[in-house]
């Protein structure tokens, strides 16, 4: 199997040459069921699950009977905290919930490789030269993406050393800037194009291997 390649872009978005990618990662088989399982687990992990309501034991007030047991002509009641009263507790109230779904480590890595490989096959994967931005410039970053010609949203993967690149792209509309450790399969699938800095490519390949 021939090693896949991706264009190396300069600050103007022009491809200067092709970068050879690791075939075991960027030419991996795409298994949609593994990608779906991983994305579902990642999205569930973002849910807080903090919904809740008070039962009759948690509502304040209601120490004494609202009226006497007999002689009023009304139904007997023991507390205004009962569900039938306004401001009373909720019957079987919802509580805290954990939405986490367990996914094996091998499945996560296989899904991650498949999502990356899908971008390479579609021609929506690019590598940004490490010396492309000598200083932060949002205007140059927008021009770079415009010249590259790929549809947004775009996910840009940077390293800690790419401070100028990060500052240049972080304010662009529909551009998500993350590090290799922060990148998730859901973000790779969400992106219409994936751009990785040259200094971050090795870290991305190590994570996917």
Describe the structure.
This protein has 209 residues and is of the alpha/beta class. The chain has 2 domains: 153 residues, 3-Layer(aba) Sandwich (Ribosomal Protein L4, Chain: A), CATH 3.40.1370; 49 residues, no CATH class. It is 33% helix and 14% strand. It has 7 helices and 6 strands. Strands 2-1-3-6-4-5 form a 6-stranded mixed β-sheet. The protein is elongated. It starts with a strand and ends with a helix. The mean pLDDT is 93.
Distance between the termini: 17 Å
The fourth-level CATH homologous superfamily of the largest domain is: Ribosomal protein L4/L1
Shape: elongated
Main pleated sheet = 6 strands, mixed
What is the CATH topology of the largest domain?
Ribosomal Protein L4, Chain: A
Helical fraction equals 25-40%
Number of helices: 7
Low-confidence stretches: none
Structural domain tally:
2
User: How many strand segments?
Assistant: 6
Short recap of the structure:
The protein has 209 residues and is α/β, with parallel strands linked by helices. Helix content is 33%, strand content 14%.
């Amino acid at each position: 199997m021939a090693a896949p390649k991706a264009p190396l872009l300069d600050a103007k978005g022009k491809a200067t040459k092709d970068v050879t990618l690791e075939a075991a990662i960027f030419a991996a088989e795409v298994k949609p069921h593994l990608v779906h399982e991983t994305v579902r687990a990642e999205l569930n992990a973002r849910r807080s699950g903090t919904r809740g309501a008070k039962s009759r034991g948690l509502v304040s007030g209601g120490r004494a009977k609202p009226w006497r047991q007999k002689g009023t002509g009304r139904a007997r009641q023991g507390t205004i905290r009962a569900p039938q009263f306004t401001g009373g507790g909720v019957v079987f109230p919802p509580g805290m919930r954990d939405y986490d779904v367990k996914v094996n480590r091998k499945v996560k890595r296989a899904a991650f490789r498949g999502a990356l490989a899908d971008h390479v096959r579609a021609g929506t994967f690019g590598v940004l030269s490490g010396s492309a931005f000598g200083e932060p410039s949002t205007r140059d970053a927008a021009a770079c993406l415009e010249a590259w010609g790929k549809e947004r949203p775009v996910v840009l993967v940077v390293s800690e050393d790419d401070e100028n690149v990060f500052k240049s792209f972080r304010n662009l509309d529909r551009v998500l800037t993350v590090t290799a450790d922060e990148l998730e399969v859901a973000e790779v699938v969400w992106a219409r194009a994936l751009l990785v800095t040259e200094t971050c490519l090795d870290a991305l390949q190590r994570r996917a291997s």
